Amino acid sequence: RADVGIAIGAGADIAMESADIVLMRGDLLDAVAAFQLSRAVLRNIKENLFWAFFYNSVGIPLAAGVFYGVLGWRLSPMFGAAAMSLSSVCVVSNALRLKLFRPKYHYGKIESSKQGADEMKKIVHVNGMSCAHCQASVEKALMGVAGVEKATVNLKKKLAEVKLAAEVSDEALMNAVNEAGFEAVSVEEK
Hints:
The structure is a single chain. By secondary structure, the protein is α+β, with helices and mostly antiparallel strands. The chain folds into two domains: 1-108, no CATH class; 120-189, Alpha-Beta Plaits, CATH 3.30.70.100. Helices cover 46% and strands 18% of the residues. The protein has six helices and six strands. A four-stranded antiparallel β-sheet has the order 4-5-3-6, covered by helices on one side. A two-stranded parallel sheet has the order 1-2. Helix 2 (29-64) runs antiparallel to helix 4 (77-96).
């Protein structure tokens, strides 16, 4: 029994609809990054709850005047409002630390077992691109193909340079471009 469903963005639409997490690229290391991010989010939530509980356990009795009879302490409503605002700023800034999150693994180059192995690159000639949005759509479609490491589209030359991490058939690249709504004319080795 699974608690979390994970789908790859290049997969079937039904899989993406039913999944809790959708990986945008075909890289399974992104699943590890998703779990690391979820742990960081839970840790952040627990920190925020701790500080909110601590602040409220001290601030509410002080604002209510509980300490006035014993210690003579009382809190001006103006300072209470400022303290409440400061508490909110602290909670939000603590949550914004998640923007600095980086996964613990690194995308390093995997050494090839063959000595002096060349990088695998292919050029896909594409018709139907006219703007930067088209360029981004073709890049996204090609990045969704398993085995594609990097896709760079040249809008003026109407071609996409694809860097491969594994062997990918020409048909798979052409199908990805065609399914994105563009016409893949040909594929050639670089």
